[in-house]
Amino acid sequence: MTDTRRRVKLYALNAERQWDDRGTGHVSSSYVDRLKGMSLLVRAESDGSLLLESKIQPDTAYQKQQDTLIVWSEGDNFDLALSFQEKAGCDEIWEKICQVQGKDPSVDITQDVVEESEDERFEDVSDPAPPIELPVPDVSRLEDLHELVVSCLAVPLRREKLSLALEQEGYLRKVIEVFRTAETNNDRAALNHLYHIFRSIFLLNKNAIFEILFADDLIFDVVGCLEYEPNSSCPKKHREYLKKIAHFREVISIGNIELISKIHQTYRVQYIHDAVLPAPTAFEENMLSTLSSFIFFNKVEIVTLIQDDEKLLKDLFAELTDEATEDARRKDLILFLKELCAFAQNLQPQARESFYKTLTNHGVLLALELSMPLPDPAAKSACIDVLNAVVEFSPTIVREYCLQQASDVDDDTLLLNVIIEQLISDRDPELGGAVQLSGVLRLLIDPENMLAALNKSEKADFLNLFYKQSMSLLIDPLLANTQGENPEKEDLQTAQLLWLILELLTFCVEHHSYHIKSYIINKDLVRKVLVLMKSRHTFLVLGALRLLRKVLALKDDLYNRYIIKGNLFGPVIDAFIKNKGRYNLLDSAIIEMFEFIKSEDIKLLVSHVMENYSQHLDQVTYVQTFRALRLRYEQQQERVKDRSSIDNVPALLRNNSRYRRDPRQLDEEEEMWFNDEEDIEDGDGVVPGRHSPELLGRKVDADLDSIGKLLDKKAEALAAGRTLNNSVSGRTTPLSTSTAPNIAASTSPTSVTTTTSSTSPSDGKSGIKKSFFQQIFATLQESATQIGLVDYDGDSDEEESEESNGDVHEEDDQEKPAAKRPRLT
């Protein structure tokens, strides 16, 4: 079993004079060869790594505070502290330190400023700072004491000597007796001197002195000394407040006497720090760091003692989670829990994690779910503070609780819905609670801090739950206020609530892709939001515009078509016209939105805006945005027009297979095809049908290219055969001159069949060749008929026949073996 006596927390004082937790481990003292001396070693309890290795120097001043703390300095600006779990462990290490330095373990500080041994060794060296002799604590000597204390504050060495002198022989208790006598005699001069004396004593910044002053029998007298400020005509009433007004209420039974005493002491010292002591000057701001440390360690100890008290926590949450608990009693319990969480904010992350896990295991979320609907504003505010603290530390804890609730068929309530209900029903004119709850809700739905494990997806599960069961509740006030063309309620509180809802929706648009898109389009939510563009509250108008701007920033085609279909720029243009060009945030925000559309070249929106609102926007000349938008629109229309003129030419005429096609031409046409596809996507969204003339034309072009390549191969084979025939039988051409006109004159597959049948049986090879070419032309003519070619002016069948005849005769005139292949009309 681990020795808890040696269990410590290691703290280091940072530049802001706050204690940083360096980790929890176990301390030991042993000889370290490298450091050549006895050293303090702290090893982490998690992995055994070395957290601290500090040699016990013979001249370092170690201080023992509150029976469980050892504090010392290493260097000028590096203070360390060990906080022990048990007093026995602190005493054991303290004895080791005192043994190394040769000190009595009964002292609370191991080093005086000037040691006797040093005086003995260096008798020839004069002491630059002789010991301070304090005046006798008497009314007549208060002025001398005041001057002495003030003079010592400016010199560090004399401050140390003064601190040691004040700690000895109960001197401060004797000064307190003088205060009691002076107050009884109403001696204002003596009381004024005592005010300055004790204020300066606090500035000595010594924990040993604080231990004396904050004892239960002296602390109220110390507060009394600080009531008699010389510049005040009448004394302050701090003691009256602490004794009569500030009552300690033991909401839950605390059996630990040490815990009760520590709570009292911490409250009073905090009050002295915040209310009694005057605000320190620029030269004194770092002279109360020890007092802050005293309060800090007290709070850590209180939280630790409560966390370790199982009975106390069990009794607390048993009442908080009981639905039969009365509202007044529940209020007291939740206020106690709020104070406990406020103290826990001083804990370091590791200790704070343990604290909140303890609260969760005892049912803190169920307690908040039952307590938040309380009508009392103080109780409601306390619940929100506790919830905010839990969610800020670990939103995953709350999400898991909500998902568990959703899976429980017997539980109709949902903590998420309770949060939203409290948000939209906040009666505070400033909506302080609603603002806090909106921050809580944003943390819960933020996908950036959601975890995704191997067997589950927290993000998907929780967002599905939120949009399915909670989103409709959140937007109910928005939908109720935007049913008509104008907002139904225009009071400030309603406007502020709607602004909070808009901020949450904008956050969802930015961080949730699928869920919010589906919800917006199904509910036509943007149209409802843009009704608020007519509100008389400018901040609400800007909130609605911000949501639309976030939608546009996604550059989502579905969102853009939704905006165009709903004509959702209309309310924005109306607000822009109503603003009349005034130089304000609304004018700049609207112009920036159109500047974004122009710079990102969102073709759908550019066309929609210029075709529907150009008559208003063209009149705006004090910025170049709309002129540039018009230019962008005209350039876009020119490109569309050029493509349309190309598309109107029949495919057989644009890609005439009479000539061999250059591969570069194919690349250009493919690029034009993909550009056309982009235009279709960015245009009206109409996809051509499977049998549209344009697609069929492109298909025929591809077929023609394939046929051309096939003809090349056949022509080569025919040329080789003709050369062989010429050498054997003297033939000059494989085709008779009467074949081409018949083929050219063919207008249907029937004519191709007729010509083939009229061929002489004796000319078998020519008949086969004629049949092949006639079938090719029949296929081409059938494709041309399907795509619906029309006759243009100046075109005629006779011209085609003449061209065909000319080609055939030209071919007959060539006698060389390397004849050209027959050309296709």
| Widest sheet: strand ordering | 4-3-2-1-7-6-5
Radius of gyration (Å): 46 Å
Mean pLDDT metric: 78
Ends: how far apart? 101 Å
Estimate what percentage of residues fall within beta strands. 5-15%
Please report the total strand number as a whole number: 7
Uncertain stretches = 113-128, 656-666, 676-693, 723-773, 783-825
Q: Profile the largest sheet.
A: 7 strands, antiparallel
What structural class should be given to the helix and strand makeup?
Answer: mainly alpha
The coarse overall form would be: elongated
Helical content band: 55-70%
InterPro entries: ARM-type_fold, EVH1_PP4R3, P4R3-like_central_dom, PH-like_dom_sf, PP4R3-like
Family: Belongs to the SMEK family.
Protein name: Serine/threonine-protein phosphatase 4 regulatory subunit 3
GO biological process, one term: DNA damage response
Secondary structure layout plus pairing:
Layout: E1 7-13, E2 19-32, E3 37-44, E4 50-55, E5 63-65, E6 69-73, E7 79-84, H1 87-101, H2 116-121, H3 142-153, H4 156-167, H5 171-184, H6 188-203, H7 207-213, H8 219-225, H9 238-245, H10 257-276, H11 289-307, H12 310-320, H13 327-344, H14 349-361, H15 364-371, H16 377-393, H17 395-407, H18 415-424, H19 432-444, H20 458-469, H21 471-481, H22 492-511, H23 514-523, H24 525-530, H25 538-553, H26 557-566, H27 570-579, H28 585-599, H29 603-617, H30 625-648, H31 651-654, H32 663-682, H33 693-729, H34 739-744, H35 749-757, H36 764-786, H37 797-812
Antiparallel strand pairs: 1-2, 1-7, 2-3, 3-4, 5-6, 6-7
Biased composition (Polar residues): 726-745
InterPro entries: ARM-type_fold, EVH1_PP4R3, P4R3-like_central_dom, PH-like_dom_sf, PP4R3-like
Family: Belongs to the SMEK family.
